[in-house]
Design a protein that fits this description.
This protein is of the alpha/beta class. The chain has 16 helices and 13 strands. It has a seven-stranded mixed beta sheet, with helices on both faces. The longest helix has 21 residues.
Length: 384
């Protein structure tokens, strides 16, 4: 009842963010946790300990933004990189530039890829691109599916990891084979690497070797790295030079972006080295969740993937999503523990009568033991 009354007094999203983000024990923190002033003070305090703090502010992409672009290019092993205010813009620009070079505006990608689900048809509506799907399975396409697709395509876009299939990745050998199959068709390869930073543990390879399979790569700064916003497109010099022109035409040549650029640099300095530990802990947490649900006699549940490929995974339960969200909120209010956050109905392609949520592991979750997870699950289930 307490949460119902308070949600009337302030917007539900803000209330949930305050309760979940303010809980002393959390598996992860999000960009919605904390306050505006607190977040800005944290960033300023960090910047004061680095050479960036005494540097000039940027104007139309110089200064600290240029330093960030050079850093990204070095991390990924590409000659150049360009900062973009959003990943939606970065990927449209990249693929329209490639379409101009290949003469083919068809992009092959997964039907669960971000541009297909979350960008309101921007590829076609804004950039004149057309998409085709190589598979409907909840995984990335195989080399055979790339080779056998009946229609020519100019670019293959591979989302690593594929978030809406459960943050899944292929094996390294499978990824190499997919790229080779695209090359056989004279298609360029672009990685939607919003969460590429998470991939080295699964692949057993460094970022330059992973990114080097592709002709161009987009990365996000607020996914995994905890930045305020922003993205980068990395690739050959001539592609990035043209991308800067299209960035201006798309309205992305922003006057000043130093807060976003500083937060991205902080993420590269502090969060990127921790990601392997987050992935390892995600596997511990996932195993504890599976055991806890089984011990509680939950009639049907799934942790997807069973062994996480990254520091993020999905959990499915056979209950109403609103009831599970309320239980997660009640757990945080009553015990100061945030185990889960919002739950959603299963998508049309998912099992009926199920609810799904995403779980992330970052710094706060490193302190959790297997027993901590199981106790939190038991307390959560009593509140549903």
């Amino acid at each position: 009842m307490e949460s119902d009354q308070r949600c009337v007094e302030e917007p539900a999203r803000e209330y949930r963010a305050r309760v979940w983000g303010g809980a002393p024990r959390r598996l992860w923190e999000t960009s919605m946790d904390g306050t505006t002033g607190g977040r800005l003070r944290e960033l300023a305090d960090w910047a004061a300990t680095t050479p960036y703090g005494d540097g000039p502010v940027d104007m139309y992409g110089d200064a600290v933004v240029e330093r960030l672009e050079r850093r990204v290019a070095e991390e990924l092993g590409f000659p150049a990189a360009a900062f973009f205010p959003t990943g939606t813009m970065a990927q449209q620009v990249a693929l329209r530039c490639w379409a101009g070079r290949t003469g083919n505006a068809v992009v092959a990608l997964h039907p669960l890829a971000h541009p297909e689900l979350h960008e309101s048809g921007a590829f076609g509506a804004v950039s004149g691109l057309r998409t085709v799907h190589l598979t409907d399975e909840p995984r990335l396409p195989t080399a055979e599916e790339v080779r056998e697709h009946p229609e020519p395509f100019g670019a293959l876009m591979v989302e690593l990891p594929l978030r809406d299939a459960g943050f899944v990745l292929p094996t390294w050998d499978e990824l190499v084979e997919v790229v080779e199959a695209a090359r056989e068709r004279d298609a360029v390869v672009h990685f939607d690497g919003a969460r590429l930073w998470d991939c080295p543990t699964r692949f057993g390879r460094g970022l330059p070797e992973i990114a080097g399979l592709a002709d161009s790569v987009y990365v996000s700064f607020y996914k995994s790295l905890g930045g305020l916003s922003g993205a980068a497109l990395a690739g050959p010099d001539e592609l990035v030079e043209e991308a800067r022109l299209w960035r201006h035409r798309y309205g992305g040549q922003v006057f000043q972006q130093y807060p976003a650029a500083l937060s991205a640099l902080r993420g590269l300095d502090t969060e990127l080295p921790r990601l392997p530990a987050y992935v390892a802990q995600a596997r511990v947490v996932a195993a504890a969740l599976r055991e806890a649900f089984a011990e509680a006699g939950v009639p049907w549940f799934r942790v997807q993937p069973e062994v996480p490929h990254t520091h993020q995974f999905r959990v499915w339960l056979p209950y109403e999503p609103d009831a599970l969200t309320a239980a997660a909120l009640s757990l945080a209010e009553d015990t100061g523990t945030t185990l889960f956050r919002r739950w959603f109905p299963a998508p049309a392609s998912g099992p009926p009568g199920m609810a799904v949520t995403e779980v992330t592991i970052n710094a706060p979750g490193l302190e959790w033991t297997e027993q901590d997870v199981k106790e939190a699950v038991r307390a959560f289930l009593t509140r549903r």
